[in-house]
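Sample entry (386 residues):
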Amino acid sequence: MSVTGFALTFAAGLVAGWLIKTFLVWRQQHFQQCPGSALPVPFPPPEDLVQAVKDEQLVLLAGTGLVANLCPKPVWLPAHTRELADVQNASRSWEGLYQALFGTIKRQYGPDFSAEIDKLLMDPAGFDYAAAQALLLKGMQVIKGFPGHPTADEQVFLGELTLVLLQQLQPDLDSMTAHAIRALGKVAKLALTTNYDGVLSTVLGRTMTSPAAVLQRWGSAVDYVRAGEASGTVARHKKELIQLHGSVYDKGSIVLLDPEYTATQTDFQKFMLPVVGKYSLLIVGSRGGAHDAHFTPMWQHVATNWRRDDLSSHPVHNVLALERESSAIRREFYSDSVFGEWAKEHIKVVEYGTQHAQLGPFLHQLAAQAGLEPSNSSKLTWQRLQ
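Predicted structure, serialized as tokens:
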């Protein structure tokens, strides 16, 4: 072969290699964004969870981890303080946002929770949005505890921080996760969230309400569902999202610290106990409340106050988790001295993947196995297969 021929062959090989690589990258990106695509799911949905969806005995309970999956990037409000403008300019991702926010707070108040911030940001397992939000909220409370704080300027800054982080979260409505959550929401008895923001409300197309409002009008969550099912139309329980810990749109409703938990404990238990006794919770983006001042007493009550001979009739609740987190979450539930033995039979920690991006494909497969498929409409609607 001549030198020219060899050069042409070599060049053709490079071009072919580039084209193949480009195609593979395009295919990966396309299938990650396409709601109907079949991405590999390392851990298939368990049959009892699939059956709960088929039987329409599911209650969807969403935490902050789902928000991170639905909102790939921050969306900004206009900044009215230099500090907030600096934060916005420095960050183009959630991780960048929190690094900038924590950097600002550490410089001013660092010694009190600096070590926790550093541990979070340097976690080899990757950045955890849910943990970051919880830590930031904790940090805001720490600032409020400083003598002479918050000042007027700090109040403005913290108020805008709340707006940026919670009110202005914009979900990706075309994502696989959004499609799947909408599908599951259509057959769920109830949609609940511990989040303060409106992300899940936007994805599901539901108005936000509170447990207190449900109790005041219907007496219990189960009666709320029954009244809706008896109406023969798309009832309120299918059109409302219940925010268990309050809403950023009603700041006085937010349950964050021990005093708020104590003040709302009775209503929370009154609302949730009939729910967990009748329906199967699908907990997405949350550890399930094994060490939570509201959820822990609820699980303890379920395990100790219902008759032992009724245990076999209790529904099974499912907590979705990454593979690397599942063992720790199981220990939190199963080692509890009060409800641990009950939890081994009635709370299942379900691994959905090895990385957060696999949550959408897992939920998509769950919906598909339960007989839910995307409609042909360009709108993001799902329908049950007949």
